[in-house]
Amino acid sequence: MTLPGRPSILLTVLGSCALAAAPAVAAPLFTAVPAQSSLGFVGTQQGEKFTGAIRDFDARIEYAPDDLATSKLEVAIRLKSMDTKSPDRDQALATADWFDFARFPTATFRTIAIRATPGGPVGDADLTIKGHTKRVAFPFAWKAAAGGATLDARLTLDRLDFGLGAGDWADESMVGRKVDVVVHLTLAATPAKPAKP
User: Fold this and answer.
1) Half-sphere exposure at residue 102, Cβ-oriented, CA atoms within 13 angstroms
2) CATH classification of 48-190 is 2.40.128.110, yes or no?
3) Cα–Cα distances in Å, from 56 out to 45, 46, 75, 84?
4) Most exposed of 29, 149, 162, 178 (fewest Cβ within 10 Å)?
């Protein structure tokens, strides 16, 4: 019999066990739909703008706007798929002075945290290109859609932070240091998975 005004010890114990047994749910998982996603960039060469695109990349996104602690963004970029619509420029970018595709075929982007700001979510991420890793702030726009979502972002990088452009190429009058990266991901949702304990 339970005394008035005092909780049942048995019910308390059972409730605690139930909470402990219930698996935590991670943020929903999304993957990029290649045909509807793009990763591009805008640079300058001798004062003239040029555009480029990465044709081959994988994006794995775990994101919930109300659960940023378990959210994360990961992208693997295969640099050989870079296309600037100029064969001569593309050949130069493959060399050791630039991306050195032979030694560093893949660039990676991984968030270490995502935070809410008045302007929207911002990912604090490690971007690794050509063996150089730099912490970058990645503000992005997230829009839920039927069966998935879209993610759009734009950020500016300094190519010299990643050792891109050696020798005469380091002169900004030849190639601008600042490169704008433009991201559009159409994401398809996949079944949720339990979070690691």
Assistant:
1) 5
2) yes
3) 24, 28, 11, 14
4) 178
Along the 197 residues of the chain, how does pLDDT read in single tens digits? 444 554 444 334 344 444 343 344 578 999 999 999 999 999 999 999 999 999 999 999 999 999 999 999 999 999 999 999 999 999 999 999 999 999 999 999 999 999 999 999 999 999 999 999 999 999 999 999 989 999 999 999 999 999 999 788 888 888 999 999 999 999 999 865 555 55
Q: Where are the domains of the chain?
A: 48-190
90-98: Cβ within 8 A, 24+ apart: 96/166, 97/165, 97/166, 97/167, 97/169, 98/164, 98/165, 98/166, 98/169
